[in-house]
Design brief:
The complex is a heterodimer of chains A (242) and B (367). With 242 residues, chain A is of the alpha/beta class. In chain A, 27% of the residues lie in helices and 26% in strands. Chain A has a domain of 161 residues: P-loop containing nucleotide triphosphate hydrolases (Rossmann fold, 3-Layer(aba) Sandwich), CATH 3.40.50. Chain A is globular and about 45 Å long. Chain B is an all-alpha fold and 367 residues long. Chain B has one domain: Orthogonal Bundle (ABC transporter involved in vitamin B12 uptake, BtuC), CATH 1.10.3470.10. Chain B has a two-stranded antiparallel sheet. Classes of the chains: A alpha/beta (242), B mainly alpha (367).
């Protein structure tokens, strides 16, 4: 369970978020939608612990501010919008970085084979030996997703649900791979994990999200609207629940 | 030099099928360790006096009484008190320069970051010059308190301040601007140079001569005292380096992602900066400004075994040590019986290599 109460974020003198409240449950895909500049990415950064935020954020019941970076890394993985690389790593070396602290949750001794399995899931079989910097933008994004998947390979570990935070995971992908990625998110939630994803495509959102949070530009402080969707019904089937 | 050529040949275009270069990296580290042993033995046994140096080394290694008896006292002094400290100091300094280069490049996420290029060495130099010139007058209490550690600690302080300022200036929200970093490095280097100039102006004749030779970079005058002064600091930084490997690998994806992967980014950066400043400072204090080792060695190794810091850091230490010993051998023999400061040798080889890196990068960008 992720709970955020009255979260505000300022960068310098500028207030970017004001009093945002939010909830996400394990077993669900929670989508955050809204126009550019409405603070979606900032909010996801607050949830990830990248920015210091006012207000309370609880990750599986624990105060995020009191958790050490390596503790949060065992509970949630974050896919950023884009990742640039400073050195010529191979794809396999990048994906391997996701296996942190031996908390992938894969069976004993399987960690070494995990990069290949994660790459196969994002439809990049045979890419392990390629250099990351030579791939297209969409391929790079899927490599990063494979890395993120390795970090929380088991959606539930030690009885605790784990989380995927995805910032526009399909922005540079073709339609086929948009579906591949969203199905991975869906599957992660079905197996007991939780997914929080910033999405722009309302069609995809209505296909895959269990819960939708709309953020609007300006107008803070204002309560966040929540829409409840059934994952199989189109967007017209949504009913306002908040 | 032959080894260099082989590294170029192997390193250029090859690529492993499944992207796992760890086996190759481990093998390379083994070869480099072996090479270092060979180069160190070569350094111990070569020089102006080589009559029975080999016997000394054999006697030392196998502690055989028979071999020991055959040695003249003069040969033993040459090997134990002149060459051995020089070889040990060369290994320490070469490893320190190469590893601090690799750590700094990982920290700044840029293959061109090098303590020598971005003013850290100049800052450390300012600290050292301050201690050399003022150590017996204004700073006499400090010298009395710290003894032989006064000089390396002063250099460490100078390097630390420079690195911190550089990082503050060049990094905004986890993104390091390369242009800002290099330009700020020039500015900081010039500032340190200006202050150093003032101190040189104050120096007396004996200090001036010390400063001149020290400034060119040299392993000459290596003594057990110098090793005792700089050794512990360098060894501490070298031993700590492998623990930074995971953090540096994560940092390659950016500071935010490193945080997502569980790295305590701010603390990690502080530790890395202190380690770089310590290793650079201690090296500069005893051997002056020896340039380009920190940029050439990690770059060659990235071509050969990839950028994974778990292997890059130990390999850099080994190759840095070997190359510096070879450079020292060249500096001792090329104008024998006189000797060239080693800084001139590393600059003469390293500067063209640096230009080659730039051209190669441009080539990639232009394609």
């Amino acid at each position: 369970m992720i709970e955020a109460r009255d979260v505000s974020v300022s960068i310098g003198p500028k207030r970017i978020l004001q009093d945002v409240s939010f909830e996400a449950r394990p077993g669900e895909v929670t989508a955050i939608v809204g126009p550019n500049g409405s603070g979606k990415t900032t909010f996801l950064k607050a949830l990830s612990g990248d920015l210091t935020a006012e207000g309370a954020i609880r990750l599986n019941g624990r105060d995020l501010r009191e958790m050490k970076p390596w503790q949060t890394a065992g509970l949630r993985a974050v896919l950023p919008q884009a990742t640039t690389l400073s050195f010529p790593f191979t794809v396999r070396e990048i994906v391997r970085l996701g296996i942190v602290n031996g908390r992938s949750g894969a069976l004993a001794g399987e960690d070494e084979r995990l990069p290949e399995r994660a790459l196969a899931r994002v439809d990049l079989e045979g890419f392990a030996g390629r250099f990351y910097q030579e791939l297209s933008g969409g391929e790079q994004q899927r490599v990063q997703l494979a890395r993120v998947l390795c970090q929380v390979w088991a959606p539930v570990l030690d009885g605790e649900p784990r989380w995927l935070f995805l910032d526009e995971p399909v922005s540079s992908l073709d339609i086929k791979h948009q579906l591949v990625i969203m199905k991975i998110a869906r599957d992660f939630a079905t197996r007991g994990g939780g997914v929080v994803a910033i999405l722009h495509d309302l069609n995809l959102t209505s296909m895959f999200a269990d819960q939708v949070t709309v953020m609007s530009r300006g107008g803070w402080p204002r309560p966040v609207h929540r829409l409840r969707c059934s994952p199989t019904i189109s967007s017209t089937g949504c009913s306002s629940a908040g | 030099m032959e080894m260099l050529q082989r590294i170029f040949a192997v390193g250029a275009p090859s690529e492993v099928a499944d992207g796992d270069r760890s086996a190759r990296a481990r093998a390379t580290i083994g070869v480099l360790a072996l090479a270092l042993v060979v180069v160190a033995l070569f350094s111990l046994t070569s020089g102006a006096s080589d009559a029975s140096a080999w016997d000394v080394v054999v006697g030392w290694m196998f502690s055989g009484e028979a071999a020991d008896a055959a040695l003249s006292a003069r040969d033993r002094i040459i090997v134990y008190d002149i060459r051995l400290p020089r070889v040990i100091l060369g290994i320490l300094i070469g490893a320190a320069l190469a590893v601090s280069g690799a750590v700094m490049q990982g920290l700044f996420r840029n293959p061109l970051a090098d303590p020598g290029l971005v003013g850290v060495s100049s800052g450390a130099g300012l600290g050292a010059i301050t201690m050399i010139v003022l150590g017996s007058t204004v700073l006499a209490p400090v010298t009395a308190l710290l003894g032989i550690y006064a000089l390396p600690l002063a250099a460490f302080g100078g390097g630390l301040v420079t690195t911190l300022v550089l990082y503050r200036v060049a990094t905004r929200r986890g993104q390091t601007s390369i242009a800002t970093m290099l330009l700020a490095g020039i500015a900081l280097g010039a500032m340190a140079g200006a202050f150093s100039g003032v101190l040189v102006y104050l120096a007396d004749d004996r200090q001036l001569r010390d400063l001149t030779f020290w400034g060119l970079g040299s392993l000459a005058g290596a003594t057990w005292t110098k090793i005792a002064a700089a050794g512990p600091i360098i060894v501490l930084a070298l031993v700590g380096a492998p623990f930074m490997a995971r953090g540096l690998n994560a940092m390659a994806l950016g500071e935010a992602t490193a945080h997502h992967l569980g790295v305590p980014v701010q603390r990690f950066k502080n530790i890395a900066i202190v380690a770089v400043a310590a290793a650079t400072g201690a090296s500069v204090a005893v051997s002056g400004g020896i340039g380009f080792v920190g940029i050439v060695v990690p770059h060659l190794l990235r071509l050969l075994i990839g950028p994974d810091h778990r292997f890059l850091l130990p390999a850099s230490a080994l190759l840095g040590a070997s190359l510096l010993l070879l450079a020292d051998a060249v500096s001792r023999t090329i104008v024998a019986p006189a000797e060239l400061p080693i800084g001139i040798v590393t600059a003469a080889v390293g500067a063209p290599f640096f230009l080659w890196i730039l051209l190669r990068r441009r080539g990639i960008l232009d394609l």
